Amino acid sequence: MGPGNARASWIWGGVSTAVPHIRTTSATLYDTWRDEWQGLGSSQDSADRISKAIEDDRQAVLVALTSLHRQTRPRHAGLQSAGTRQKQ
Question: Residue ranges of the domains in the chain?
Fold first, then answer.
């Protein structure tokens, strides 16, 4: 399966809708792809709608990853402090 393959895109859509933090935007991307993929190459509107859905999903993934990082950072900082104290 090469770039732009409809089957590969369907697989990503199915996988990403299983991730709770990005389920809504991924479902929107999945629906947009399902409705618009046949217009790629012949309809700029289809391409624009798919591109917007992809960008929205990417942004949601970035926000989710940033949020998860912030949730775990204090634990790591505490572990580092404890390790530093033991070395002193």
Answer: 6-87
